[in-house]
Design a protein that fits this description.
The protein has helices at about 5-20, 30-75, 85-120, 125-155, 160-195, 200-230, 260-299. It folds into 2 domains: about 5-230, Arfaptin homology (AH) domain/BAR domain (Substrate Binding Domain Of Dnak, Chain:A, Domain 2, Up-down Bundle); about 265-299. Helices cover about 80% and strands about 0% of the residues. The protein has about 300 residues and is mainly alpha-helical. It contains 7 helices and no strands. It is found in: Cytoplasm. Its main location: cytoplasm.
């Protein structure tokens, strides 16, 4: 970096610091700021879509791989042909394997070639616009600094006419450069914003159609699987601990476990019955005491 470039950067930092402290004013272009806000919002959407498409792709691939491992374990567990869940386990294994083979490669290729890569290519435009925005902002800082310098020399008593003339000429150059960059950059930002949908329409359509086809395939395999799954009665659930042999008797217990809700209901019934019985006993004792008092008074 040359000394002049270094000095220029120092002057810009000084000017920005003065603006933050409120000791000098900053030139504000409301229309440009609105265009810049729209650009930043669109840029954020582009970057987020690219990131989340990758996340969805990786998540679905991981989901199918995990489902394959799970289906293999379930099928290996139900190794007895007479087991109640043998057929559903095999059906689940077949469905997941077929779904993974048909979908993973297709989904991976389509999203990569027709969605992820186009989105990445579209984001190259930011590499062109971002430096232009930076140059425009630097030109604004330089213009404000020159304007502050001219104002200071003008208000100063016995200021050097040569310095003032030089500062005024520099201000004219800074102003001209800033106004040109401001106008050109704003036009490019507005053009990009107005045409922001076109570059993303095709990648988005491909991704949604691919995702929709994937969900349809899952639905087909799920419907086939549901046909062979027996109805589940939660009241007949058997705990694995009840299948363990008793060490003393050597027998196995195969009893259904009672749900904790039923136990709670029974406890509540016992408590209510005990409270009602105790309340009835207390009432009887009160009546007996009243009778004794009356009998005593009569005597």
């Amino acid at each position: 970096m040359s000394f002049n470039r270094f000095k220029q950067n120092i002057n810009r930092l000084q000017q920005k610091a003065l603006v933050k402290m409120g000791t000098t004013e900053k030139t504000v272009d409301v229309d440009f700021d609105k265009s810049l806000e729209k650009y930043n919002k669109t840029k954020h959407c582009y970057e987020t879509m690219y990131k989340e498409v990758l996340n969805v792709k990786e998540t679905l691939v991981a989901f199918l791989e995990a489902s394959k491992r799970l289906s293999n374990e379930i099928a290996d567990f139900y190794d007895n042909p007479k087991a109640k869940m043998r057929l559903p386990a095999l059906k689940y294994q077949t469905s997941v394997t077929k779904l993974a083979e048909e979908t993973i490669q297709l989904f991976d290729e389509r999203t990569k070639d027709l969605t992820v890569n186009p989105l990445l290519e579209n984001m190259i435009v930011f590499n062109d616009l971002n430096p232009k925005i930076k140059n425009r902002n630097n030109a604004l800082v330089d213009y404000d600094r020159s304007n502050r310098k001219v104002t200071s020399l003008t208000n100063k008593k016995n200021s050097d006419p040569l310095k003032l003339s030089k500062a005024q000429n520099e201000l004219k150059k800074r102003k001209k450069r800033y106004e040109k960059l401001n106008k050109d950059t704003k036009a490019q930002l507005d053009s990009f914003y107005l045409n922001r949908f076109k570059p993303v329409d095709s990648p988005t359509a491909v991704f949604l159609s691919t995702y929709g086809g994937f969900m349809l395939e899952i639905g087909k395999h799920s419907n086939e699987l549901m046909k062979v799954i027996p109805k589940v009665d939660s009241s007949n659930w058997i705990s694995a601990t009840s299948l363990i042999s008793d060490r003393k008797t050597g027998t196995t217990t195969n009893t259904t476990t009672k749900s904790p809700l039923k136990k709670k209901k029974k406890k509540k019934r016992k408590e209510s019955s005990s409270s009602s019985s105790s309340s009835s006993e207390s009432e009887e004792e009160k009546e007996k005491k009243k009778k004794k008092k009356k009998h005593h008074k009569k005597k």
